[in-house]
Amino acid sequence: MSDKAWGGRFEKELDAIAARFSASVDVDGRLWPQDIDGSIAHVRMLADRKILSSDDANEIVAGLQTIRASIERGDFDWDESKEDVHMNIEAALISAIGEAGGRLHTGRSRNDQVATDMRLWTRQACESVVADIDALLEVLVDKADGHVDFLMPGYTHLQRAQPVRLAHHLLAWAEMLERDRGRLVDAAKRMNESPLGSAALAGTTFPLDREATAKALGFNRPMRNSLDAVGSRDFLLESVSALAICSVHLSRIAEELVLWSSQEFAFMQMSDAFTTGSSIMPQKKNPDMPELVRGKTGRVVGSLVNLLVMLKGLPLAYNRDLQEDKAPAFEAFDTVHDCLAVLSGAIASARFDKERMAAALQAGFLDATEVADWLASRGVPFRDAHHVAGKLVHQAIQEGRTLSELPLEAYEAAHDAFDDTIFLALDMETAVERRDVVGGPSRARVTDAIAELRGRLQARRDA
Ligand code: ARG
User: Fold this and answer.
1) Per CATH, which fold does 360-462 belong to?
2) Residues of the chain with pLDDT under 50
3) Core-most of 49, 171, 240, 449, by most CB within 10 Å?
């Protein structure tokens, strides 16, 4: 007879290629902490419900603790022929404590077991990425605080548009990350229900206490439907979607770091600790870390697509396809964790160049809107004011001057509402300060935004 764990009805061993093809322990082995926690919760409940004797339960719990210690020490003997993490641990338990070990799986299936393990793992992984995001937010708020006085061009279409503060730009990144954080927190809340006790698909004949195991594992409640509990993975779609959006944000931030550290912009210098040289060009200092963050986005978006396609078309309840959920989920969480850590270090150690940013404000007519606004605030319809300002920009380009270098006569010729106070409006600091609206770049709005973000981060640390 075969020694398969589900052995009785099988006469032949699994074909070697089939065994290798279906084994997953190299990927799901990292679920061991969740698997052991889940088993302990299950077996204690079985004893409370008198489904198992307390002697058996105690023996099983002690055996599982020994296995946990052995895995932690690194001397656990993982065996691919035992297929997955669940069978590896259960087999080790049975070989360590004998008959009692064989009672652990009473009223349980690997289907509810793996769904439980994955929810526990993902809940924790969301928490840890949320902490990574908070760490990057701390870096951004500190950098913003130190760079309120740095004026720079704001861009649309990557063309110099209007002046802003560097702090305002950094706080824009923070807002994007803040929403990413919110999406992960929401996903973690919704996934926090326990599949355990749903068994293979239809529950079990044993009088399990699903509330008790849910509570022991920190879930809010047992999942309401056993078919759904073992067959659904939208908790992964949701959290990995949040990660995919986050990594698109990280990629956009990374792209700006790459641009800004180019000689064309030279708005910043990345630290040597986060740049690399070239094997052939001695002068090079390349922003490889943000480039890799940008490049790794494909892994995370790919993981989401992988999960969506894997799930599409699956009938209820459990299907073996679901085993393929782990690699993309792990990849997405690991990648975003690394990207957040690298960006935190790269941004914290970067130095911004105030003069270069200020110089960039001098070319590009970033004060053209000021001219239009000046006229509009004196009663000229904005559309007309825009046209007049455009003509003045055209004239300045022809004459190779800036708007503030044009003489007053040029303004007066363009529109009779002009007087010499127009030149006060052309100062960049003034232009930024006049943008004193909610969400704007004026000093007061930016320092308020910094204080508000600091307060939020502090409240989270205190919580
Ligand atoms: N390794 C499997 C997975 O991750 C565990 C569940 C196996 N269940 C089954 N009926 N073969 O999905």
Assistant:
1) Ribonucleotide Reductase Protein R1; domain 1 (1.10.40)
2) 1-2
3) 240
